[in-house]
Design goal:
Layout lengths: L1 H18 L6 E3 L2 H4 L5 H20 L5 H5 L2 E7 L3 H21 L10 E6 L12 H15 L3 E3 L13 H17 L13 H23 L3 H6 L2 H14 L1
Parallel strand pairs: 1-2, 2-3, 3-4
Helix pairs in contact: 3-5, 3-8, 5-6, 5-8, 6-7
């Protein structure tokens, strides 16, 4: 089944190369680990390990690293810690560039396209209007961190079957205010040079690279999942968060 999936992906990439070279049909989804209590270091390491696994597989189908990397985007979850999440997205770009450079990828391939989703793990069902504050902080962090695309969920999304069109409008307005009134999209790297953010960026990148190397030494991402290593790491993180 895995090989047939990569054969289908190869057909998709060939079509992209011929018809839509700017389209990014491949996605690495570290937000899936975020939503089950994975921390920032784990998101970064798992993103990198998953991407490297796919690069190696697709190179066997005669694609070069430029074809693969420029067709890929990474989707991260954004939770309430503003500084950690800004640093996480900035660290993701550093790590991606480092990994793609190791595959002899050019500068275009070393640029990571980031999609950000506001978190589902920290929203209140009992007091959903308080989620507006969380959503604003998370959307702000994603924008300052440099996400190309941001999905701001509805404030009442966790309250089963009660989400309204008004809630959707408020989520849209959070983005409009940050873009048009705060002017976040006018800045290239608003957190660049801030000591605390730079420190967090470097610390997250170093810890994530270390975990990535641990996964690689254990046979790569697929082997780590099959052995239960990834599940144990996230489970331990979930237990710590609940404690």
């Amino acid at each position: 089944p895995l090989e047939s999936s990569f054969q289908e992906t190869a057909v998709l990439l060939n079509s992209r190369r011929e018809n839509a070279p700017n389209f990014r049909p491949l996605a690495v989804l570290p937000f899936l680990y975020h939503d089950v209590s994975g921390d920032a270091v784990q998101e970064l390491a798992f993103m990198l390990a998953t991407a490297v696994f796919h690069i190696r597989q697709l190179r066997q189908h005669d694609f070069n690293v430029h074809d693969i990397a420029t067709a890929t985007q990474a989707a991260f979850g954004i939770s309430g810690d503003i500084f950690i999440n800004i640093a996480k997205l900035r660290a993701a770009r550093k790590l991606w560039a480092q990994a793609i450079s190791a595959f002899d990828g050019n500068q275009a391939a070393q640029k990571l396209n980031i999609v950000a989703f506001t978190s589902t793990q920290n929203k209140s069902k009992q007091l959903p209007h308080t989620n507006l504050l969380r959503l604003t902080a998370e959307t702000f962090a994603a924008a300052v961190g440099g996400a190309e695309v941001i999905f701001t969920q509805r404030f009442d999304q966790n309250a089963a079957d009660t989400s309204t069109e008004f809630a959707r409008r408020l989520s849209d307005n959070i983005q409009h205010i940050l873009q048009q009134e705060v002017g976040l999209t006018n800045l290239v790297d608003p957190a660049g040079g801030a000591y605390y953010v730079e420190y967090l960026t470097d610390a997250l990148a170093q810890k994530a690279w270390s975990l990535f190397q641990q996964i690689e030494a254990d046979g790569g991402m697929l082997a780590a999942i099959e052995k239960g290593l990834v599940q144990k790491i996230v489970s331990d993180s979930d237990a710590q968060r609940k404690a």
